[in-house]
Fold this protein.
Amino acid sequence: MTAGAPDPEDLDLTVDELAAHVGMTVRNVRAYAGRGILPPPRLEGRTGYYGREHVQRLQLVRELLDRGLTLAAIEANIRDARPATAGHTLDLLRILDEPHDVEPEIMTRDALAALAGVPRDNQLIEALAQYGLVRWLDDDTLELLQPHVVRIGSAAVALGLSPSTIIELYPLMRTRLRTIADTFVSAAVEEIVGPFIEAGLPEEDWDRVLTVIQGLMPVASQITVAILRAQLGEAIDTEISSQIGSLRLSQAADAAARKPD
């Protein structure tokens, strides 16, 4: 909140204070009010006062616009919503964003090369940039947009895998895991969110639905990691068995070749 602006939990806000609190212009606030997205203020004389519901509505509008929704779509969906809906929806969006809420990291390209134990390589960085993992800030500085992914990939390279192998694995894993994620989300929507919506978004069920969704996300991640570990173990056993079998065949062939006629 800006200095001097009252807390919307405790006090009413004028339109100027409301705009400052949510980081919008007064003109935009008035435009949203004119479209019916913002409920009417409480009037005292000729002055309108706005509270927490108005703040949450405007925060939700900005959030949905940032996610690519049109103003017409937002208007159609939240104009007649009940007072608590905007706050609940913001809570839901924050829960859904938690796994992605990672601060970018600034790193020199020398530091990145050292992290992976490889020489400086602009082509490698360009490949990372192509997948949205990093971006150039200047000739020597990078912003790691997904620092956890870049660091894990660098660790794999430092252990001996080639950078090209790791980079080629990334889109494959992303595509396969997106399929898993889409399937999981579809099931959650069908079995949990759908009935909640059909029931008219009852106020008494919001906390339960939010808690369930928040709990399902780490469960889905843990299941994915557990299955991947099991599959990696099986793949390693299969590959080692294959290599040992090939080695034995080669040794047998060498022994047969050395055997005198």
